[in-house]
What we know:
Strand content of chain B: under 5%
Distance between the termini of chain B: 74 Å
Oligomer: heterodimer
Number of helices of chain B: 24
Amino acid sequence: xxxxxxxxxxxxxxxxxxxxxxxxxxxxxxxxxxxxxxxxxxxxxxxxxxxxxxxxxxxxxxxxxxxxxxxxxxxxxxxxxxxxxxxxxxxxxxxxxxxxxxxxxxxxxxxxxxxxxxxxxxxxxxxxxxxxxxxxxxxxxxxxxxxxxxxxxxxxxxxxxxxxxxxxxxxxxxxxxxxxxxxxxxxxxxxxxxxxxxxxxxxxxxxxxxxxxxxxxxxxxxxxxxxxxxxxxxxxxxxxxxxxxxxxxxxxxxxxxxxxxxxxxxxxxxxxxxxxxxxxxxxxx
Amino acid sequence: xxxxxxxxxxxxxxxxxxxxxxxxxxxxxxxxxxxxxxxxxxxxxxxxxxxxxxxxxxxxxxxxxxxxxxxxxxxxxxxxxxxxxxxxxxxxxxxxxxxxxxxxxxxxxxxxxxxxxxxxxxxxxxxxxxxxxxxxxxxxxxxxxxxxxxxxxxxxxxxxxxxxxxxxxxxxxxxxxxxxxxxxxxxxxxxxxxxxxxxxxxxxxxxxxxxxxxxxxxxxxxxxxxxxxxxxxxxxxxxxxxxxxxxxxxxxxxxxxxxxxxxxxxxxxxxxxxxxxxxxxxxxxxxxxxxxxxxxxxxxxxxxxxxxxxxxxxxxxxxxxxxxxxxxxxxxxxxxxxxxxxxxxxxxxxxxxxxxxxxxxxxxxxxxxxxxxxxxxxxxxxxxxxxxxxxxxxxxxxxxxxxxxxxxxxxxxxxxxxxxxxxxxxxxxxxxxxxxxxxxxxxxxxxxxxxxxxxxxxxxxxxxxxxxxxxxxxxxxxxxxxxxxxxxxxxxxxxxxxxxxxxxxxxxxxxxxxxxxxxxxxxxxxxxxx
Lengths: 285, 530
């Protein structure tokens, strides 16, 4: 069942990219059309891709798959695994994006690396706050607590509920901040091979989709593998799609900001939100 | 025969170094004879490990290991074996000094691991630093200087700590003191410097250089692992220590930041090693049965991964083949070394499915479980995870600096595959060994009914299922556009063209993304929702 993680993450990530494209006011269905074009170019042209780019994309997909599989109950879902899988996905995305980087792009990549590192810390803190909210060290325990207490935000003290909402928002925002790695191939001889661009796009979709899949795991909870009732499944699917849309909206909105504003405004805001979530959840226990 | 194993394991590396120096003028005789003596010494070290694992107690002149230290000695030997070809391929003068230091240093590490006397350990602890320092003075350039001041401070801390333990316990043997007091803390401080966990001090600085000392840093990391095991397991009996855990998590964050800021491949990879060492120290700081188990899983893997990274390495002073040279970039062996380097670096920062993953996972799980009742542990989790991720991102540029020589590349890949196996099969590989070590060290048994995190239940089959889709996607991306695909791929492509399968394949791949949706719908039908 763990094999389902990657297709599901890709699906949710593609949905997020479509919403991001809409927010960026791009042509309709541009991500899908670009995917088709890259796929065709990869199949018809002899443009070799480096092993490291492939390794990076594979790592990103594996990390995303492990997170998504955990979110649907198909693999263990404790914070340690989730954080290491997220680290794998982030490192893999950067490795895949490092193919044929020009000198100016290398400087941008360094700034992006710092940004991703800070966002990763924010996402990890947000995840930790979500587990702390349910006093659980595993997603199964979260779902168990949710079955008894109910999942709505209003359960428990107000501070804890606000903390949980902030943490969910931080995880979704982290997906938006982590995904916009440079995918447009530079022109001329530095142009990225089609297969590398395709793999990078899929790695990016996987990362966005995996974090989007975590939101319903904490907001409504549903063990897709062990089973559940139809309304619970509907809630899970609905929240997963809404989370993808939120991730996409944040992703698109952040793309419209300049890189400087992203680093100076969005990242501190995310870190502050995560820290506030941890404090609120700890206080409201 | 059994009686000869311990002296062969201890003296063998130094004897190999002597043979190497005696035959230094004749290239192939020195490689063959010294190599044979070296391999014999390593076989003896593994035979000692096997004897101890089987319940025997081989000893020689009061030197006899327990199972944990026999394992660490064997792992350190394997790691040093991986880097030897790289040292041999450096400039003649540097390599002479390097081979001698590797032999003497490893002999001292094995002797320290087999020692059960505080006084002997204090004396032996100094030897690897002296050997590596001398090699650095002979074969290095100022840029790759080993930072002897840091090592001197670390050695002083270790010797001082052991003397304090000696004074307080009133016995000359390695008897447990039961808590992490000043003496044990000093030994751990020295071990942290030797492991390379302290930024820009000691082994960190040595491993970041470009000279002969950078591959030799593996010897010092092996020594650091032995000292950490002696301090935390034998002397302190894995008592939890919040300050040790907190400081180590801070070191992990510093390592991550240093990795991002590094401007050279050696600097990035030293930061990766620093983050990995910090993870092992966090596990020791968490203590208790589960923390001890995490550290036990981490330490041997850390030593081996350091060897893999140093063997597949980065451009060194005196190496006539610089991987940054455009002509060298095209060599096929470079990709083998790059793959091994990636696996080694991933093992050090605990990324799945590489070797450091189970231990790091267990340490993070334990800290998360404790955060439920003591929320400050959450800072520990976030700090450690962030430090590891930062170091991993920082190491990306270094992956393109892997060497191009066939033998180091092949050996490091072999080590990398062993690390992948250790990462994917933690339960099958090490459960019996773990239980034996825990019983031998008197560590409290972790009962499943206590609800404590256990070794990751995820196994090779689970990981294979998770990896399979990624492998399919990436494999297609790498093989199909290749200018010189394998013969089977060329034939398949020709057949596909004749049968006009190109469009069908494109449609199939496009439809793969919809497979998840179809599964959800089917699941919905199964649940009676549709």
